[in-house]
Amino acid sequence: MLGDALKATVVIDNRGGAGGSLGAEAVARSAPDGQTLLVGTVGTHAINPALYPKLPYDAVRDFSPVALVALAPVAVVVHPSQPVSNLADLVALAKRMPGKLNYGSAGAGTPGHLTGEMFKTLAGIEIQHVPYKGSAPAVTDLIGGQIQIMFDPLQSVLSNVQADKLRAVAISSKTRSAALPSVPTISESGYDGFETTAWWGVFAPARTAEAITATLAGEIERIVRSDAFRNRLEPLGVLATAISGDAFSRFQQSELAKWGKAARDAGIKID
After folding, report:
1. What is the pLDDT of residues 67-81, one digit of tens each?
2. For the domain that residue 137 is a member of, what is the CATH number?
3. Stretch 225-247: mean pLDDT, rounded?
4. Tally of domains within the chain
5. What is the model's pTM?
6. Alpha helices in 65-198 (DSSP H)
7. Rounded mean pLDDT of 6-29?
8. Domain hosting residue 168, numbered range
């Protein structure tokens, strides 16, 4: 879509590793000419600065924020055999069995892990974190009964919830998801103001000319607000969300503060 809008060829270079840090570093070191962009995440631009003592880039100084494009809530899911139909049931069960329930996530320092840590502190419960190497093995173990709970972005568990292999008891966004409208938010389940989301946004290298970032932001916003883009994301549990310019910068700063505090409070560091 962006290539058509800019009448240019867009080449996608997937660089995994270190929670997205390798790809982020590559863009941070690129020429600020608008030709190299990063689809950054809540990990690369809000969580990693608190996790990695030797992060090879600065999430603020090394980038020019262009536009936020999507948000996804973290879902709290359990196996259907658990005597849990809502978040209050889950908290009550955890309090009856302190330290006995395990919750999985896609890995240490992921949005699911930190959301779980934030929630257990707020709810006053003791549940044990089990980190996995990605969402898929955690989902497999939850379905198989090796763990009892999982905190993970909604798109990773949605198909299993819809197939009744897992039960969603809450989501972490401010409002309910159109993909699971009957599932309440954590905030409306008795924990007012609780909100976390995974997110994706476009960043350019620092010192990219404002005229370039403004053009990019305008085209990206037009795409994000289109029915075609929204209709592709919302069935996955992902919300198309367009924020650009100073508003995107302020959003990132608030996310750095929120997730940084969560990581520090949980004592999480990754070498």
Report:
1. 999 999 999 999 999
2. 3.40.190.10
3. 95
4. 1
5. 0.93
6. 87-96, 111-123, 135-144, 154-162
7. 77
8. 83-189
